[in-house]
Amino acid sequence: MDDCKNGAFSNVLLITTSAVSYVISNLTPGITCRYRMKVDNIIGTSPYSDILSVHYAEVPDAPLAPKYVARSGGDLTIDLSPFITIEWEAPFETNGAPVLGYKVEMSMNTGSFEKTYDGSSNPVKKSFKF
What we know:
mainly beta; Immunoglobulin-like; 2 domains; 3-stranded antiparallel beta sheet
């Protein structure tokens, strides 16, 4: 494995004949790490494999447009305000990192957008009632 800055490779020695995978942790999102392998046996050491480059976690894809779910004209005589509910799906590709939350913005009458909902504290919620 290189230093994840396209620099020098360092050895990660695996002394096993049964491992078919290896977990590397504490990587920083947005970096590219390069990997190559060689194999030792009692006769000697193989040449290095081709280099595998992996870009670790990027900004997620944009989600699809939210869907209109329901509305109510409300009933102000019983303190029920009018509302609209929207819902959305998670983006198809999160590029290696979990979704940490959704932010919803609203524009009234083609005006400027203003943040209406910040779901940073609840990343599993995928609907909002205005």
